[in-house]
Amino acid sequence: MPNLTASQAAAIETRNAANLKAAKDGAVLKAAYYKPVILVGSTTDQHAGHDKATIAFLLASSAVKKEGTIKIKKGGLTGPGSLTFGGGLVSPPAEAKTWLERITKKKLI
């Protein structure tokens, strides 16, 4: 299991939050899970905006790797919206949910 530095973890959370915020309602973002970390990308690139050295480290040191999608439903007056997992992440690991719960109030489906 990879041991990330505090700065690597913070950079991943910051980029994940930025990619989620930049997405339009209904967008399907590509994502990658490298136990215990999830990287949220863009509609075309699962690593969009993430540090290349950190990605290389995760690819080399993670025993569990999954690729999938996250569909975003923006919130409004009726609720915070949701993130729906698909593809290889249709049943996301608990660690992936934990990473996202720290940066979003959206319901994780």
In short:
With 109 residues, the chain is α+β, with helices and mostly antiparallel strands.
Report on this structure.
This protein has 109 residues and is an alpha+beta fold. It has 3 helices and 5 strands, in the order H-E-E-H-E-E-H-E. The protein has a 5-stranded mixed β-sheet. Strand 1 and strand 2 form a beta hairpin. The radius of gyration is 13 Å and the shape is globular.
Features:
single chain, 109 residues, alpha+beta, 5-stranded mixed sheet, 3 helices, 5 strands, 32% helix, 31% strand, globular
Query: Which of globular, elongated, flat, extended, rod-shaped describes the shape?
Result: globular
Return the structural class.
alpha+beta
Low-confidence segments, given as residue ranges, are: none
Largest sheet descriptor = 5 strands, mixed
What average pLDDT do the residues reach? 94
List the SSEs and their pairings:
Elements: H1 6-22, E1 28-34, E2 37-40, H2 52-61, E3 65-76, E4 79-87, H3 94-101, E5 107-108
Parallel strand pairs: 4-5
Antiparallel strand pairs: 1-2, 1-3, 3-4
